[in-house]
């Protein structure tokens, strides 16, 4: 028999506290306990939540995987999947909230608005930001993970999303976990190819921004591309 929230004294139960004091006043541990619902035969749901937070910070949970979660004693696959789904839903809500027609007109403003997407990542993530004809942000899309190369990064996917969103222009962003933000030869070749396709499609690539730890490199600012 597993420990449940019902076995916790009523005034200490996260669900009761949420109703009493509001969700914003709950600790990270209490929020996790509500999502997890139950503990295990030898561990309460509060203790299980605490074990997760001892192993991973809230920032690290943003990109946690099922395999990492199930390595924590008491975390089965079902709980891991439910937790990851909850985290992903929160991320999507946050992205939608931050996409309300922001006008981003230069590399620095785009970087400042989107750099949080790359916090703590250990591999390369490739995003495209899609804009309307007023340079207002329509949508951010994570399109690829891993080092940029022709085998995994296809321009077709980039422009397919642009058509779906009726975008007028595109800015590409990806991170270098090494913090060396100089573009590689593959970065440059790939970007030049995108720029040429954008000209043909009538959807220009305005910039490609490489992100490091609190630094960035703009292809446009460094005169590497001519959209």
Describe the structure.
The protein has 227 residues and is an alpha+beta fold. Helices cover 41% and strands 15% of the residues. It contains nine helices and five strands, in the order αααααααββαβαββ. Strands 2-1-3-4-5 form a five-stranded mixed β-sheet, with helices on both faces. The longest helix has 21 residues, at 77-97. The chain is elongated, with a radius of gyration of 21 Å. The mean pLDDT is 85.
What's the helical proportion of residues? 40-55%
Strand content: 5-15%
Low-confidence stretches: none
Series of H and E elements = HHHHHHHEEHEHEE
Shape: elongated
Which structural class matches the secondary elements? alpha+beta
Q: How would you sum up the major sheet? A: 5 strands, mixed
Number of strands: 5
Strand order of the largest sheet: 2-1-3-4-5
List the helices and strands and how they pair.
Layout (H helix, E strand, L loop, with lengths): L13 H8 L6 H9 L8 H11 L2 H4 L4 H5 L6 H21 L9 H8 L10 E7 L5 E9 L9 H11 L3 E7 L9 H17 L3 E7 L4 E3 L9
Parallel strand pairs: 3-4
Antiparallel strand pairs: 1-2, 1-3, 4-5
Helix pairs in contact: 2-3
In short:
The chain has 227 residues and is α+β, with helices and mostly antiparallel strands.
Provide tags for this entry.
227 residues, alpha+beta, 5-stranded mixed β-sheet, 9 helices, 15% strand, elongated
